[in-house]
Design goal:
Blueprint: E1 5-6, H1 28-41, E2 46-48, E3 58-62, H2 76-80, E4 83-105, E5 108-126, E6 132-138, H3 139-152, H4 163-177, E7 187-188
Parallel strand pairs: 1-7
Antiparallel strand pairs: 2-3, 3-4, 4-5, 5-6
The chain binds nickel (II) ion.
Nickel (II) ion is lined by residues 105-107, 147, 151.
């Protein structure tokens, strides 16, 4: 089932999401399936539960489409099978030099900006079978995880921009807030 994606201005996007417990486990397979379907329909490569109205610590990332991109030729093999679920992730460390990448967000349509983040991460998480992993990611893999992890903390990529950039974007962002925008996928705007 495709779920409407919450737009910028929805309080759930600013709420720290709750840890997933045994009590949530029965509903998770369906939520994961719905999140994957919703992300795919919107041509996204990552989606966090708060974006579809669930304040829970889970996100999905599907980078398989990037395997066709010639910019990522040397990591095409890894990209081609990267379709993961991250449950109760804990960012253990972020290391390396900051690098800029042009980010977007399904909750903030039509806005793309360069965001600086560290290159490498060490992440503790559970997969969809609740198997625990402690895994290092770097480059584009780290980037998508950092963006989605932020969602669980109530942080959006625009928060990382300079106050000057934010000022320039103000008009565009308020249009998203009020739903005064055309989007090709199902969205729910704050009233
Ligand atoms: Ni996002």
């Amino acid at each position: 089932m495709i779920l409407p994606i919450r737009a910028l201005g929805d309080p759930i996007l600013r709420t720290k999401a709750k840890e997933i417990t045994d009590a949530d486990k029965d509903m998770l397979p369906e939520l994961i399936e719905n999140m994957r379907e919703t992300m795919k329909k919107a041509n996204g490569i990552g989606l966090a539960a708060p974006q579809v109205g669930y304040s829970l610590r889970i996100f999905v990332a599907d980078l398989r489409v990037l395997a066709q991109d010639e910019d990522y030729e040397d990591i095409a093999d890894v990209l081609a099978s990267f379709n993961k679920v991250f449950i109760n992730p804990i960012m253990i460390e972020e290391t390396g030099t900051e690098w800029k990448f042009n980010e977007g967000c399904l909750s903030i349509p039509d806005v793309r900006e360069d965001v600086a983040r560290k290159e490498n991460i060490l992440l503790l998480y559970q997969d969809e079978n609740f198997v625990e992993h402690e895994e290092r990611f770097s480059g584009i893999f780290a980037r998508v995880i950092q963006h989605e992890y932020d969602h669980l903390e109530g942080i959006l990529f625009i928060d990382h921009l300079s106050s000057f950039k934010k000022k320039i974007l103000k008009g565009k962002l308020s249009k998203i807030n009020t739903g005064n925008i055309q989007v090709s996928y199902s969205m729910r705007f704050p009233k």
